[in-house]
Every structure is written in structure tokens, then in C-alpha cells.
Amino acid sequence: MNKEFYKNARVIYILEGLVLSYIVTGLILLLFSFLMLKLELTSAIISGAINLAYIVSTFIGGFFIGKRAEQKKFIWGLLVGVFYFVVLMLISLMMNSGGALPLGSLFTVFIITSLSGMLGGMIS
Q1: Distance of alpha carbon 29 from alpha carbon 13, whole angstroms
Q2: In sequence order, what DSSP letters do the residues of 86-111 get, joined into one string?
Q3: What single DSSP character describes residue 124?
Q4: What pLDDT sits at residue 87?
Q5: Which domain does 105 fall in, by range?
Q6: Higher confidence at residue 17 or residue 93?
Q7: Contact 113, 88 (CB under 8 A)
Q8: Domain count, the chain
């Protein structure tokens, strides 16, 4: 019975980490959209800002779950990063009804989110 509760708590921790990550992403993107409104930002700055949002949000999600996990914190952080990417990819596929998504960009985002979540778990 205690093992069953512990497994369910892990799933809840991952979901809480994901929700926290997406809240942080929303806040960062809201800040950058305000900056885009007030300033003329180049596409390189916008791309960097989006990558920064991925890094910071998955790091915070990994750090959050790392604080909750008792062992193998880096793996739990990695899972948050991977699940963050999967949800992000599914939303992108639903929004992009006509064309295929660029694989190079997807791979880069996967590496960024996975490693940032794992680093957050390791540091926690």
C-alpha cells in the first residue's frame, strides 16, 4: 500500500513540475512579448528569448521535482524536461496543420529542455 502511494506521488510531482514549468514559460514569454511591443527586436533576439524561456522553465521544473525526489534527482529532472518537450511538440503539431516541423529545431529543443531539467534536478 505504501509503495502504491509513493508511485502515485511521483506522478503528481511530475505533473506539478510541468505545470510550474509552463507557468514560468508563460510569464517569460509575456515579458518578451511586451518588450517586442515596445522595442524593435531582431529575430535572433526573439529566438534566443524563446530558448531562454525553455531553459529557465525546465530548470525550475527540474529543480522543483529534485527537491521532492529522494533519490536519482537528475533522472526526475530529466523526465520533466522530456515531458515538457513532448507536450510542447504535441501542441506544435496541432497548431501546424499543414507542414512538417523542422527536425533540426526539434532536436535542439529536445536537448535544451532535457538537459535543463536534468541540471535543475542535479542542483536541487
Answers
A1: 24
A2: HHHHHHHHHH--SSPPPHHHHHHHHH
A3: -
A4: 92
A5: 2-123
A6: 17
A7: yes
A8: 1
Q: What are the residues whose beta carbons fall under 8 Å from the beta carbon of 54, sequence distance 6 or more?
A: 25, 84, 109, 112, 113, 116
Burial status of residue 57 (CB atoms within 10 A of its CB: 0-12, 13-18, 19 or more):
buried
Mean pLDDT to the nearest integer, 2-30? 84
- Taking CA 113 as the corner, what is the angle to CA 112 and CA 117, rounded to the nearest 5 degrees? 115
Rg (CA), the chain: 16
List pLDDT tens digits, range 52-89.
999 999 999 999 999 888 788 889 999 999 999 999 88
pTM: 0.86
Nearest CA to 18 out of 70, 84, 77 is that of 84
Please name the residue that has the C-alpha cell 499543414. 98
72: left (phi > 0), else alpha (psi -120 to 50), else beta? left
Question: Which one, of 29, 88, 92, 25, lies nearest residue 61 by Cα?
Answer: 25
Q: 53: part of which helix (H) or strand (E)?
A: helix 43-68
* C-alpha cell belonging to residue 5: 502511494
Closest CA to 124 of 84, 74, 81: 74
What percent of the chain clears pLDDT 70, i.e. is strictly above it?
90
